[in-house]
Amino acid sequence: MKSPLLAAAAAALLLSTTAPAAPARSKAPPKTPAKVTAKADTAKPPQAFFHPAEVRSVGSVSIGGQSIAYDAVAGTLVIHSKEWEDTDAIEADADKSDDKDKDGPKPEASMYYTAYFKQGAPASARPITFVFNGGPGSSSIWLHMGAFGPVRVQVPDARHSPPAPYSTVNNDQSLLDVSDLVFIDAPGTGFSRIAGKDKEKAFYGVDQDIDAFTKFITQFLTKYGRWNSPKYVFGESYGTMRGAGLAYSLQQADVDLNGLMLLSDILNWDVMPDDPQLNPGIDMPYIVALPTYAATAWYFNKSANRPADLRAFLNEVERFATTDYAQALIKGNDLPDAERQRIAEQLSAYTGLSVPYLLKTNLRIEYGAFQKELFGEQGLTTGTLDTRFVGATLDPLSKVATYDPQGSAIGAAYVAAYQSYVRDRLNWRPDIQFKSGIPIYSKWDYKHQPPGADKPLIMLPNVLPDLASAMKQNPTMKVMVNGGYYDISTPYFEGVMELRHLPVPKALLSNIEYHYYQSGHMVYVHPPTLIELHDNVADFIRRTSNSR
After folding, report:
1. Which of 295, 408, 439, 496 is the most buried (most CB within 10 A)?
2. 61: closest CA among 39, 35, 28, 31?
3. What is the DSSP secondary structure assignment for residue 378, as one 8-state letter?
C-alpha cells in the first residue's frame, strides 16, 4: 500500500507545518495585535449529542486596521449515513423514543462546527466559506487556529514550541474581511462523534466522507438561510480530495460553488511517494517529489552551484524531472551504466544526497528516505510536512524517517490554545474529549465511485474526474491551488502534474490559478506567508463573488 499520507505525523498532529525560509513580501504582521473581544450572549449549555445544538457568542477582530464585529456559533448538526436516504423516515423515527430496529440503530454523525458571521452583512451578498483539514482523521483546528479564524495561536517558526502556557493573538489575516466562515470537524474528530450500527463503515471512507460533508453543508445552508450566498469550499491536504469530490457532490444537491480553494492538494493517490521495492514500475511519485527535495537542499545550501533565485532553480529541476530523469526511470533495467551514473550525479547536485547512495536506491528516493539521509551523518532528521524543521533522529539505523519534527514542534501548542479558546471564548463546554485527530488511516475505505462509473472502483482514489465534471457542469466555478515548496507529504509539483492531466476542455483551464510559497504543508504557520496566503485568498473571493 502507499506510504501513509502524513501517517507519521497524523497521530500527533495530522496536518501541521510551518512556512517559508525567507519572507515572500516586505509587509510584516503588526507587532502588537489588537485584542480580540468576545462575550457570551447566552449561557444555555449544549444539548445532548446527536441532537442539533448551538451556543452563540459575539466578538470582534481587527483586520488591516479595521474592526469587524461578528456573531460566533459553536454547534452541532446531525447527519445520517448514505444508506439512510429517506428524509421522511428520518423525521418519523426522530419522534420515537426508541429508534432501534431489528438491525440496531441507524448510523449517524453529530458534526461539530464553529461559524463566524459578520454583523450587519446581508446574507444574500455575503460570501460564506466552508473550511476543513483532512488526514483523513484530522479535525479542523489547524486552519481554524493557524490561518483564518479570528484568533491565532502563537508558535515560533521552524523550531519547537516551548511548553505551556500558550497564547493566542488577534488574527489580522482572518478571512472575515471578505467572507463568513464555517470550520467543520469531520465525523469522529474534534467534537464530532459517530454512533449506530457499523458506524465506522458508514462514515470512514472516501465516498462516505464526501456524502457526510455534502449533507452537512446543505443542512447548514437551510438552517442559517444561506442558500443565496456566494459559496466557497477551502480544503487542506486530504481535505482537497474531499473538496474536489464536494464540488461535484454538491452540484447533485443543487449547490453550485463560486470557488474551490485547495491547499497542499492530493487529488490522485497514484502519484503519492511509495517504496520502490513494494511497487516497482510506478515512477511518477519520484518525478513529482524531486523538486521538493531540490528546494530543501537549496534552503539548507546543500545543492551544487546554488543559484540565488529559488523559483528559477525549480524551473530547471522541473524540466530535468520531466525529461532526462523521467526517461531514465522509464528505461528501468535497460538504462546503460554510463547514463545511470550521469543521472545520479545530476540528482546529487540537486538534492545534496551522495552519488553512491542514489545509485544504491536505483535513482528512486523512497518516501521518508530523503528526510533521514540529508543530515544523516549529523544524526538529524528533516520534517516531512515542512522540511525546514530539523530534529534528532530517533533511530539512526532506520532506512527512513520515523517521525516528523514539524508535527512534534507545534501540535501541543495548537491543541492547548484551542481547548482554552473554545471553552472560554466560544462557551462550548461539552463533556467529551476534544480529538485533534483520530488514527483511521489504515481503516479508511479508499474505494471511490467517480462520475460515469456504475460502482466504486477498486483502485487508489482519484477525484480528478469529479473536479472535471464539476467544472464542465458549472463553467463559472473557479479553482485556486496553493502549496508549499518544502512539503514532502504532498509535494507542490504533484499538484501541478495532477491538474495538467485534468480532463477538461482547454478553455476551462483558465479557471484554475496557482500560488506557491516558500513554506511547508501548512503554509500559514510562518507569519509572512500567512499574509501572502490571506491576500491571495481574499482577492480570489472578491474576484469571484461579485460582492464585497
Report:
1. 295
2. 35
3. G
CA–CA distances in Å: residue 1 to residues 135, 264, 284, 506: 16, 21, 16, 34
Q: Is the pLDDT of residue 319 over 80?
A: yes
Residue 163 pLDDT: 77
What per-residue string of b and e applies to 248-286 under the rule 16 or more CB within 10 Å gives b?
A: bbbbeeebebbbbbbbbbbbbbebbbbbbeeeeebbbbb
Q: 272 pLDDT band (50/70/90 cuts)?
A: confident
CB 448 within 8 A of CB 206: yes
Phi, psi of 190 (to 5 degrees): 55, -125
Give all domains of the chain, ordered by start, each with its CATH number.
12-270+410-545 (3.40.50.1820), 271-404 (no CATH)
Backbone angles phi, psi at 511, to 5 degrees: -80, -5
Read off the pLDDT band of 8 (50, 70, 90): very low
The answer to whether the beta carbons of residues 473 and 251 sit under 8 Å apart is: yes
H or E stretch at 418: helix 405-424
Place of cell 454523525: 109
Residue 410: which of 151, 155, 165 has the closest Cα? 155
The Cα 519–Cα 482 span in angstroms is 11
